[in-house]
Amino acid sequence: MYAIIELGGRQYSVEKGSRVRCEKLDHAANATFAIDKVLMVKDGDKLQVGQPYVKGAQVQAKVVGHARGKKVIVLKYKSKVNYRRKIGHRQHFTSLLIEDIKG
Asked: pTM of the entire structure?
């Protein structure tokens, strides 16, 4: 079974047992929750596409943990005026384990 879900304004394709890195969520580690924003579900030859969401479809997910991504360096530079700024940023994310897809 295969599904496309919406989390934090982004779309993710998931299967049972897959791991997803999404924007930081307000769930504790090892917490289980249901995702109702399912855009599409495919089970064998049967395909359900929502308008915008599939009615009655749910994806059960478990929070594996919270972490921060790799550092992204932002450089600002203006010529002839000796203006230079170097800033680093690390984005927070949540790692999810997809436990079940109910279509």
From this structure: 0.83
